[in-house]
Amino acid sequence: MFCINVILNVKSESDVATVRDLLTEAGRLSRAEPGCIRFEVCHSQSDPQTFLLCERWESEAAWKQHREEKAFKEIYQPQVLPLVDRIPHISTLLE
């Protein structure tokens, strides 16, 4: 399994609703992709400008393929990334 957690901090408070809507749609599309085990979009209750993506993919190859799909290419990369600061964490799931 390939795990990545991404912290997104929206640069401008006025963009929070837009980012929330875009991430909701990107999450929905990502969950339908082959190789996606779990794709969660969380919105912080303590800091409204912070979102967390919790992604679980069957393999690193599946995650790399995700980066070629609509959710990433048409929503996340061109529309979300310009509005946020991003901190990715490739992670190991402890069981």
- Tally of extended strands? 4
Q: From N to C, what is the helix and strand string?
A: EHEEHHE
Strand order of the largest sheet: 2-3-1-4
Q: What is the helix content? A: 25-40%
Description:
With 95 residues, this protein is of the alpha+beta class. It has helices spanning 16-31, 60-66, 70-80; strands spanning 2-10, 36-43, 50-57, 84-91. It is built from 3 helices and 4 strands. A 4-stranded antiparallel β-sheet has the order 2-3-1-4, covered by helices on one side. β2 (36-43) and β3 form a beta hairpin. The chain starts with a strand and ends with a strand.
Sequence-ordered SSE layout with sheet pairings:
Blueprint lengths: L1 E9 L5 H16 L4 E8 L6 E8 L2 H7 L3 H11 L3 E8 L4
Antiparallel strand pairs: 1-3, 1-4, 2-3
Task: Give me a quick take on this structure.
The chain is α+β, with helices and mostly antiparallel strands and 95 residues long.
For the structure shown, list the relevant keywords.
single chain, 95 residues, alpha+beta, four-stranded antiparallel β-sheet, 3 helices, 36% helix, 35% strand
